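4.2 Preliminary Data

To establish feasibility before requesting continued support, the project team ran the inverse folding procedure on a target of 426 residues. The structure was first converted into the token representation described in Section 3, and no sequence information of any kind was made available to the design step. The complete token record follows.
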């Protein structure tokens, strides 16, 4: 007996249902908390730039489960992995994103939460359908799964399969996002990495055998280019800027008694009051809730909220210019843009947005000795092989650690020519 999921990346994801583990996994998939992930886009607002990027956190989570199962099955042929640990890793791979909010990471930055905390709470809270299933299966399973997602599980090597810089989360989303956006930057040799992953039992961490180092370099470069070309795409970031502006306007209007239609007593009412959400409230929200309110707000009597909502829904996004000029000239240019926007009857507080990310290179590969679980180790040398951190032996990976920052200025696209003249004069 089995349940089969037809998948765009992995073809058929098969879950055996004639074992306790298999039944647990399909029951977890069928919970309301996990089914909600069908209504959370994996790539947030990337569909504004890549029309095919409509895939969900649901499909990605199934893909992560599939990869975790494959890696565990291969590793169990060489290393001792208990049935309990195998179950915990598979469940953690499946549930690692269950706490994501609407539009994935976009809303996190607006409302000030991290999805991992909600994921852990959904797993360990005995009142959720997920929590009840895990507790019924084992007294320790929920805590073990939470520890794996946090990265402090008692066997660090197994936690790294789910939470590290070479984990099933990244392995799946690179291939999936590349396929669904049509951008080919995320393609790498998955099969060779699966074949090459090993466990350093003495130090309890994963490493990649010597023949697999080029596949890992390929994987890290794929991640680098996906961030540069897809996740940091200026159209995607522009859509985020519009969304953040309209939500900030709605929150400020609501605080001052302005025209912001909403239903009282709902989780969204607390969002407008900038109040922290409880777990149940958080899990009640998905992409559709935010879109519903934005559609209502374009009929608002507040001109700014109505205009920003219409721009978002109709894809009339902001234009973005890179602030690739000396630091001493940036403030002058930004001031000129704000003046130009105001002269055109628009409030620069909502229509001039700086999009800055000074630590963008941290999204590629970081070598932080203080975070041992995140380091990628490889076997190096043939006559006397040793296990070393990858950037110590790979010039390609060291190149990914060079500084990269993102600093753009977003403004209404209809002012592109006017502001373009200011830009060229700097």
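Position-by-position output of the design step:
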């Amino acid at each position: 007996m089995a349940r089969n999921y037809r998948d765009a990346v992995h073809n058929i994801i098969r879950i055996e249902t004639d074992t306790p583990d298999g039944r647990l996994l399909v029951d977890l998939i069928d919970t309301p908390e996990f089914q909600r992930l069908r209504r959370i886009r994996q790539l947030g607002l990337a569909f504004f730039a890549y029309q095919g990027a409509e895939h969900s956190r649901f499909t990605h989570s199934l893909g992560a489960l599939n990869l975790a199962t494959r890696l565990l099955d291969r590793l169990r042929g060489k290393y001792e992995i208990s049935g309990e640990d195998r179950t915990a890793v598979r469940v953690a791979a499946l549930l690692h994103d269950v706490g994501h909010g609407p539009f994935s990471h976009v809303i996190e930055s607006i409302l000030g939460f991290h999805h991992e905390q909600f994921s852990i709470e959904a797993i360990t809270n005995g009142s959720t359908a997920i929590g009840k299933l895990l507790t019924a299966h084992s007294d320790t399973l929920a805590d073990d799964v939470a520890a794996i997602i946090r990265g402090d599980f008692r066997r660090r090597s197994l936690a790294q399969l789910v939470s590290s810089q070479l984990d099933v989360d990244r392995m799946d989303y690179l291939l999936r996002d590349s396929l669904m956006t049509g951008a080919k930057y995320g393609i790498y040799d998955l099969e060779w990495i699966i074949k090459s992953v090993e466990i350093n039992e003495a130090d309890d961490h994963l490493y990649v055998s010597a023949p697999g180092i080029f596949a890992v370099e390929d994987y890290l470069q794929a991640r680098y280019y996906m961030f540069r070309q897809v996740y940091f795409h200026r159209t995607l970031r522009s859509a985020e800027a519009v969304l953040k502006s309209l939500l900030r306007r709605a929150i400020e209007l609501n605080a001052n008694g302005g025209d912001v239609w909403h239903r009282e007593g709902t989780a969204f009412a607390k969002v407008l009051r900038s109040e922290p959400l409880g777990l149940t409230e958080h899990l009640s929200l998905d992409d559709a809730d935010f879109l519903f309110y934005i559609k209502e707000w374009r009929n608002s009597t507040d001109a700014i909220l109505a205009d920003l909502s219409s721009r978002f829904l109709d894809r009339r996004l902001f234009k973005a210019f890179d602030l690739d000029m000396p630091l001493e000239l940036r403030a002058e240019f930004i001031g000129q843009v704000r003046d130009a926007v105001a002269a055109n009857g628009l409030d620069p507080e909502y229509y001039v947005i700086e999009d800055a990310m000074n630590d963008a290179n941290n999204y590629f590969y970081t070598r932080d000795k203080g975070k041992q679980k995140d380091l990628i180790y490889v076997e190096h040398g043939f006559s006397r092989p040793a296990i070393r951190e990858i950037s110590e032996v790979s010039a390609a990976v060291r190149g990914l650690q060079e500084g990269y920052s993102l600093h753009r200025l977003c403004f209404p696209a209809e002012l592109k020519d006017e502001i373009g003249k200011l830009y060229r004069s700097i």
